[in-house]
Design goal:
The protein is mainly alpha-helical and 237 residues long. It is 72% helix and 3% strand. It folds into 2 domains: 1-118, Serine Threonine Protein Phosphatase 5, Tetratricopeptide repeat (Alpha Horseshoe); 136-237, Serine Threonine Protein Phosphatase 5, Tetratricopeptide repeat, CATH 1.25.40.10. A two-stranded antiparallel sheet has the order 1-2. Strand 1 and strand 2 (24-27) form a beta hairpin. Helix 5 (87-100) runs antiparallel to helix 6 (105-117) and helix 10 packs antiparallel against helix 11 (198-209). The protein is globular and about 55 Å long.
Length: 237
């Protein structure tokens, strides 16, 4: 979920609190301190994207000093902790973000991916399946399907891999995103590699590389995947 979408939802929830006087609902606007805190978290997300983890952590901590229950800030801090390899702290923040707002599906997805990294495959699988079953709004559903597909295609434990289901999930995700998300197309390539169809894997990896405005880092990562497919090798986490 893009942070702009997270904050749009946060603002809707915040401003939907009403005071009823007679028959006239009065919208309560968020106070200036919360708007300032939201700006800090937006800045933190930008810093995180640019690799400035220390700056991102300072801003998100400052936001949480204003409001320790601000779930977008908790979610961003969980991303920071995950990037630092502090997985238990990341899971704690995911749990708290979800306690504050159960609809924060992205926090649950991050938790599932972290559990996979911690080799808690059964927990990760259960959460991916549950999140897909919720049928969230389209963009979030696409992310849930794509993340489950990546898990099914690349899990080191063969008992959790399912290439055919991974292909189905990844195709559905790509369709929702109108084939414009390089990560999801790359996931489809990985899914085909798991089924042994390396020609399709190479074709979709090349399609992912051709997506407009792909970042240099993502391009290099997908190139590495493509080299594996050329050697008839699937991706393993």
């Amino acid at each position: 979920m893009k942070l702009s979408s997270v904050f749009a939802l946060f603002i809707v929830i915040l401003t939907s609190v009403t005071v009823v006087r007679g028959s006239v609902p009065i919208i309560v606007n968020p106070p200036a301190r919360l708007r300032a805190a939201m700006k800090l978290v937006t800045d933190a997300q930008d810093q995180l994207k640019n690799g400035n983890l220390a700056g991102a952590k300072r801003n998100v901590d400052a936001a949480l000093q204003v409001d320790p229950t601000m779930w977008p800030a908790l979610y961003v801090r969980a991303q920071i902790f995950a990037s630092q390899g502090k997985y238990e702290l990341a899971i704690q923040d995911c749990n708290e973000a979800l306690r504050q707002y159960r609809g924060c599906v992205e926090a649950a997805l991050l938790r599932a991916k972290i559990n996979s990294r911690l080799r808690k495959y059964a927990e990760a699988s259960k959460e991916f399946n549950y999140l897909v079953s919720l049928h969230p709004r389209n963009v979030t559903l696409a992310r849930a399907l794509s993340d489950r597909a990546w898990f099914l295609a690349t899990c080191p434990d063969h008992s959790f891999r399912n290439g055919q289901q991974a292909v189905k999930d990844a195709k559905a995700a790509c369709s929702i995103m109108v084939w414009k998300d390089e990560h999801m197309i790359d996931t489809l390539a990985a899914a085909y590699a798991e089924t042994g169809d390396f020609d399709s894997a190479m074709r979709y990896a090349q399609q992912a590389l051709a997506v407009k405005d792909i970042s240099e880092a993502d391009s290099k990562k997908i190139q590495r995947h493509l080299e594996l497919f050329k050697q008839n090798k699937p991706i393993r986490l």
